Amino acid sequence: MIRISAFLLALTSLLAASGCSSDTPATETAATAPAEGAAHAGGHIYSCPMHPEVTSTKEGDNCPKCGMKLEHTDVVANGKTYQMQLATTPARLTAGQPAQLTFTPRETGNEQAPVPLDVVHEKKIHLIIVSRDLSQFYHEHPEYTAEGNYAVRYTFPKGGDYVLFQDYTPTGSGHQLGRQPVTVQGPAYTPVKFGADDMQWSGSGYQATLSFDKALTVGQLLKMTISLSKGGQPVTNLENYLGALGHVVVISEDTEEYLHVHPNEQTDKGPVIGFNTSFEKPGRYRVFLQFNHGGQIRTGDFTINVKG
């Protein structure tokens, strides 16, 4: 689990401009990495592809943060910290006008050194864009450029406040999370206030139901399931999206807590997708599901309230 301040996968609005950045490295919470050189003293090291800071010496373990199976790596995270620098062209973001968002990973204290990134779930950077009220959700993938950074063209649909998150993993290090709040000029979206639990979603003929095996309280591992149907019939032929049957991003109401969750291994293709997750802080969260069916990526959303 990744937190901005320590969590799924905070805020003064500002105008994104060339050179602005704000991000926090992931914090190791689920497992302690073994000492350097211990790989073969106590057996092989297995780590999570999405959260390399989660390690084990036992084959077959799953990541308690996202449920992915730990893979044999014998690699220990290098302990370095990183920042993701954001630049926008034009510097003044305006609704309805295409802009280029450019991201440059930097090693803290050695900012001129190149920072190669690993491919995780088929991409080197997963860019999550949400409106500040968490009513809008977009998932993009900046691509590597000849200048040594990563860029994507994007058009904000409405003016207002947004938050940009970047999932990325520097080679030899643990998973990192970048975060930048931006303000977009132009006619603003109307903020939505979410309240009680809403674990049902429907759209384009699809229906989804979110459920947990325990009460939503902090500090415990939860089994999360999402059941999908279309036109009242179970969806049993889901296709992979970015190498997985589905993706879930969970963000707290204040945008301080963030978690990118991937499904547990399963042999079928629906209608139920299973995940593991946990929460470190109480509060209201928005849950965003993405799945691939019929060659199209669909996005569903839910609201949950976690108790202390």
Indicate the radius of gyration in whole angstroms. 19 Å
What would you give as the CATH superfamily of the domain at 200-306?
Answer: Macroglobulin (MG2) domain
CATH third-level topology of the domain at 200-306: Immunoglobulin-like
The CATH class label of the domain at 200-306 is: Mainly Beta
What is the number of E strands?
Answer: 22
Basic shape: globular
> Helices and strands, in N-to-C order?
EEEEEEEEEEEEEEEEEEEEEE
Q: Widest sheet: strand order?
A: 1-6-7-11-10
Low-confidence stretches: 1-22, 24-42
Under the CATH scheme, the architecture of the domain at 200-306 is Sandwich
- State mean pLDDT (0 to 100 scale): 85
Number of helices: 0
**Percent range for β-strand residues:** 35-45%
Distance between the termini: 18 Å
Biggest pleated-sheet summary = 5 strands, antiparallel
Helix content: under 10%
- Helix and strand content put the structural class at mainly beta
Per-chain topology:
Blueprint: E1 20-21, E2 23-25, E3 46-47, E4 55-56, E5 71-72, E6 82-89, E7 99-107, E8 125-131, E9 137-140, E10 143-144, E11 150-154, E12 160-168, E13 176-184, E14 200-203, E15 206-212, E16 222-230, E17 233-234, E18 247-252, E19 258-261, E20 272-277, E21 283-293, E22 296-306
Antiparallel strand pairs: 1-6, 2-13, 3-4, 3-5, 6-7, 7-11, 8-9, 8-12, 10-11, 12-13, 14-15, 15-16, 16-17, 16-20, 18-19, 18-21, 21-22
